[in-house]
Specification:
By secondary structure, the chain is α/β, with parallel strands linked by helices. The protein has one domain: 3-Layer(aba) Sandwich (Rossmann fold). It is 50% helix and 17% strand. It has a 7-stranded parallel beta sheet with strand order 3-2-1-4-5-6-9, sandwiched between helices. A two-stranded parallel ribbon has the order 7-8. Strand 5, helix 5 and strand 6 form a beta-alpha-beta unit. Helix 1 runs parallel beside helix 2, helix 1 crosses helix 7 and helix 4 packs parallel to helix 5. The structure holds NADP nicotinamide-adenine-dinucleotide phosphate (NAP).
Length: 266
């Protein structure tokens, strides 16, 4: 791994925490962002205890001005990240009529606008020096529309749309853009976003949930190899193609998977 300075958002928990620890163990200086200062300092401490280098920046990424200020501080005091992992995200999987307008707005603020604002802040210096890696984490919900998670799906599609557009726009610049699409990952996401779990569809056959560290490994490898897409588990790639070719059939299968999901959850 050649990345020296890596910024991970959502590093206080789950996928972001595991990713930050992996980069720390590989010798990068890891910059951590999330709101929960205590947890964030705890993750930074764990990385340093393991022999790595980490600096925590507690921040609510929903605030665009505060985000700009922290990004400017990082640029001035530490430097431009080699890798930016846009992972922070929250949002409840709920049917439209149970979703409040402010919750839908919050899901656009983070992950989508948070990823936009940080990318916008660091991209100029990456482009100027002709190197850098931008990574965006999203869900298969960006490509498959299940029922009962409308605002979540729209927000994750926004992240995928941003990443795909940047793959094209930044191609001549030397800055790579990796979109990581992860199926179920064992993290505290469902505790953090109550009421969501019962609206998660049953996983496709033969698919098991990833551990947070497996997700982190996919992210780190995908960025290092400058992959455009990392899709885990791989069966989702086939489902996306099927969804594009046979939208009605796949939509009906997704409705059934959502129904089975509801039937198996408390
Ligand atoms: N778990 C899955 O099955 C799965 C699958 C595919 C994609 N994803 C996506 O992966 C991302 C990470 O999820 P996870 O499973 O690791 O969940 P998680 O354990 O709940 O972690 C979410 C992280 O995002 C941070 N965050 C949330 N809102 C924030 C805000 N306003 N400002 C700054 N940081 C914020 C949280 O930290 P604070 O609360 O401390 O701010 C936390 O560190 C999410 O976008 C999720 O949608 C998850």
């Amino acid at each position: 791994m050649t990345a020296k300075l890596v910024l991970v958002t959502g590093a206080s928990s789950g996928i972001g925490e595991a990713t930050a620890k992996r980069y720390g163990a590989a010798g990068a200086h890891v910059l951590l962002i999330a709101r929960n200062a205590e947890r964030l300092y705890g993750v930074a401490h764990a990385i340093r205890e393991a022999g790595g280098t980490a600096t925590a920046f507690p921040l609510d990424l929903a605030g665009s001005e505060a985000t700009k200020e922290v990004a400017a501080r990082i640029e001035a005091e530490i430097g431009t990240p080699d890798v930016l992992i846009n992972n922070a995200g929250a949002g409840r999987w709920l049917p439209l009529i149970e979703t409040k307008a402010e919750d839908a707005r919050a899901m656009i603020d983070v992950p989508y606008l948070a990823a936009f604002n940080l990318t916008r802040a660091f991209a100029p210096a990456m482009i100027a020096r002709g190197t850098g890696s931008l990574v965006f984490v999203t869900s298969p919900a960006a490509y498959l529309a299940w029922p009962n998670a409308s605002a979540y799906i729209a927000a994750r599609r926004a992240v995928a749309g941003l990443a795909e557009a940047l793959q094209s726009e930044l191609k001549p610049t030397g800055v790579s853009v990796t979109l990581v699409v992860l199926g179920s990952v064992e993290t505290p996401y469902w505790q953090h976003n109550p009421g969501s779990l019962q609206n998660v569809p049953e996983d496709p056959p033969f698919v098991r949930a990833l551990t947070a560290d497996e997700a982190a490994k996919a992210i780190v490898q995908g960025a290092a190899r400058k992959k455009k897409f990392v899709i885990k588990p791989g069966i989702y790639r086939a489902l996306f193609v099927l969804g594009a070719l046979f939208p009605k059939t796949v939509a009906s299968q997704l409705r059934r998977a959502a129904k089975r999901g509801r039937a198996t959850k408390p």
